[in-house]
């Protein structure tokens, strides 16, 4: 591009007055063609604006005929402003930012009450303060991690999780097609997950997840909870018909509150569903499963890997059951790989000295 301008300057310098006029006319036509291909409005930076002012100030009345990137009146205004102390002023685009005092007041109302953005706007108006637009108030709340709508019932779902995570378990069924002597059949797992620690308990698989089987697994789960010393006050599950009223009564008899997720709300049971996705993608999708014993073996190996060897992003890449602290000095040669399930699951650790 630099060479093109250099050649153009040499051409102009060696031209006669008549040739120069013809070249300028051509450049104007070419500029109009190029300009027609661009958006109707072109934004320029402060540096580009200063360059236009520098060279436009020497054009005099020719500004009205030559300038096309902005209106002639605009560049004449820039030229006038450049002669004042402080130079060309930068014009802020878009709506002015909401005053900091009003932003703080909006956040105070939201934090001290369960109001939505409309109620907050009404409170501002009552105080004689012209409220920002609805979208502005909503965006201020969202930017600070606050729900723009009013809280309903006992609170938001996030608040429920924070309050109950230490004693909250979620459970769900998972089914997989397995190959048997009778052909392909659906084999079921009942999975329980402790929300705070992410530890899981998986009941033995079955082809017949009826009410009697589910009640037996509920009792076995309660015994497991006692053995691992993980608290449980609330159990959440979806509206799967396999989890009947009698199954819920088994938990309620142990003073456990059973909460069913709302209809068509899979996100409310998201923790256990996310674990099921992990189990499927990292383990079960790699195998053709042959019956219950094979499934139970695969699941047992994965749960051991999941609890003791796999870092968890949701827990800041820590292990669920941490081992001995590792020294800071790294010796590459001491790192070995332990494999499960033929190398599908791999765990790297330092070899004992």
Automatic annotation (TrEMBL):
Q: Domain Integrase catalytic, which positions?
A: 146-330
Q: Which Gene Ontology BP terms does the record give?
A: DNA integration
Q: Record's Pfam families?
A: rve_3 (PF13683)
Citing just one GO molecular function, the answer is: nucleic acid binding
Checking Gene3D superfamilies in the record gives: Ribonuclease H-like superfamily/Ribonuclease H (3.30.420.10)
- Designated name of the protein: Integrase core domain protein
Organism lineage string = Bacteria, Pseudomonadati, Planctomycetota, Planctomycetia, Pirellulales
